[in-house]
Write a structure and sequence with these properties.
2 copies of one chain form a homodimer.
Chain A: E1 9-17, H1 24-37, E2 42-49, E3 54-61, H2 64-72, H3 74-87, E4 88-105
Antiparallel strand pairs in A: 1-3, 1-4, 2-3
Chain lengths: 109, 109
């Protein structure tokens, strides 16, 4: 978490998964996370999807160049296309520059 | 969605809800969303929480001033404190400036 400091970039991906994303979805989603983690400039990723199929994934990157390179990765291009046509009813991607961050953790109990 | 354009701000709140957040949690979470929506400068909110209790909420704001005012709202201060001590094992808040956004929607079937 400490690397995702001010000055880094967040890619906020919101998506509504459709009711029947098909067999390949889970494996492809896992593969994208593994692949992202292996890219230069990758800092971290967090993901949550509720029972209604709406999900948010935020990935963190060192620079705009790192985001651009990942966007052009052949396997990622292919997965995005499947996402658009097979898995998601809609999705939005937002690129944002992190200005500041705070954390808190429960101590004790 | 159209208001959350480049130049606006995203507040990315990631949290691990604990196993037994207690009775008040759901109502308080709903209340915070309603209250946020009523604040000046509020543009939108998206939220997802998976079965493991990890969740991401992203709210969008017109300006840093709007974020600051919401942060200081008395009921929000109180809810954050309960979140820290009762509901969440840990949480992180990141404020980021939206640089660009893309959407896609499946057409037809």
């Amino acid at each position: 978490m400490d690397d995702r400091t001010p000055g880094c970039y967040a890619v906020i991906f919101s998506s509504q998964r459709n009711d029947q994303p098909g067999d390949g979805y889970g494996a492809a989603a896992d593969r994208m996370v593994e692949l992202a983690k292996a890219q230069p400039g990758f800092l971290g990723i967090e993901s949550a999807r509720g029972p209604d199929g709406f999900g948010i994934t935020v990935s963190y990157w060192e620079s705009e160049e790192a985001i651009r390179a990942w966007k052009l990765h052949a396997e990622h291009v292919q997965a995005r296309e499947r996402g658009r046509t097979e898995w998601y009813d809609f999705s939005t991607t937002r690129v944002a520059r992190v200005e500041r961050a705070y954390s808190s953790a429960r101590r004790g109990g």
